Every structure is written in C-alpha cells, then in structure tokens.
Amino acid sequence: MHPSITTLLNGPKVIPVLVIEDPEDALPLARSLVDNGLSILEITLRSDAALNAIETIANQVEGAVVGVGSILTEAQLNAAQSAGGQFGVSPGVSFKLLQALEMSDWPFLPGAGSLSEMLTLRDAGFSQQKLFPAAVLGGISMLKAVAGPVGDISFCPTGGINPDNARDYLSQSNVFAIGGTWIAPLDLVRAKDWDEIGRRAAEAAMLGS
Questions:
Q1: Which pTM was predicted?
Q2: Which domains are seen in the chain, by residue range?
Q3: Among 4, 26, 147, 152, which residue's Cβ finds the most Cβ atoms within 10 Å?
Q4: pLDDT-derived band of residue 8, with 50, 70 and 90 as boundaries?
C-alpha cells in the first residue's frame, strides 16, 4: 500500500486549493488559512510562482501541511518534493506518472474520474483518491454509486464543491476530505483580502470539524 494521505490530516477535513501568482502573497495567504483552522493546503502548479511559494510556506509557516497540486509529470513530482511539499495531488494519472508514483514513498492523492481509473489506482496501492471533477462526474450521486463496487476506496472530491454542498459531501461514508477553491479564490488572493479569506477559512473549518 502507498503511504496514506489521511495520516497527514488532523482536525478539519477541508483542503483549500490555491493558485499563487505573486510570491509575496504566499506568507499572508497561508497564515490567514492556518490561523483560522485550515492547516492542510494544496498549492497548485498553475503558476510560475508556485514552487517558490511552496518552499516559502513549508519553511516559514508553522503548522502548515503543504501539498502540491496539479502534478502531471515525473519532473513535477520531483520538483514538488524538492520544494518541500509534504504530499502531492494530481487531477488524473498517466501511465508514466503512475510508474513514477509506484517507485516513490511520498504520500500522494491521485485523481480518478471513472471506475476503471479507480480500480487501476487501487491495484497500484492507492486506497485514497481524488474524485475530480466531482460535480461534472455526478457529485454525491457518483460517490453513492461507487460505494458498493469499490467500497474500500475513500475519496477527496474536488471540483464544484462550495459552502452550499460541502457538508453533504463530507457526510458521505466514502469521503475522507473535500477540496475547494471557494475559500481563497484567485480574485480574493489578487486583491490581498486576507480578512475575507480568513473568514471563509474559519467557516470551512467548522464544516469538517
């Protein structure tokens, strides 16, 4: 079995999914989240500043558990670990990435969007998977449908999660956490509205506690 992602999770089961474009935003953003109860962060590799931000937060924000999202290749996998990421996340898994993951003991949350992908990942030792894009795939209906045939797999749904449906997702027996961009959306990060992000983080922390 691959190292369990849930060993890194404690307290709230809500993971903010972040895009950081300006390296100077890394510290205030991470601190606003951690100080308001969300210590597990997923920083996506969707900007040139991402790896710098990951390194900064990993080294300077006490209590932050830094995950690296949007990993698509072995090179990105290695770069994420070198930057100080404590776990990785992918939207899906290619054959080459899966080969690299099978050689690694780094905690990783691979994305699945179909039963065939779920079974492939389970065979590779991943009993915890990211369901993405959750809402497009059917959301809670999808989770209920797969709970029977792959009842030994638990999920972190991401994609279309918001304050209105977050609690419903978390109530599913095969959901161990949820991920979402609503807590620190790019427009609020660009506006450097750390107070509003902190408020949203505190509300989200209550959802999963």
A1: 0.96
A2: 5-110+162-207 (3.20.20.70)
A3: 26
A4: confident
* Whether 117 is catalytic: no
Given the residues 102, 130, 144, 192, the one annotated as active site: 130
CB-based contact 58:87 (threshold 8 Å): no
- In tens, the pLDDT along 167-182 reads 999 999 999 999 999 9
Q: 144 an active-site residue?
A: no
Q: Read off the pLDDT of residues 127-173 as tens digits, 9 standing for 90 and up.
A: 999 999 999 999 999 999 999 999 999 999 999 999 999 999 999 99
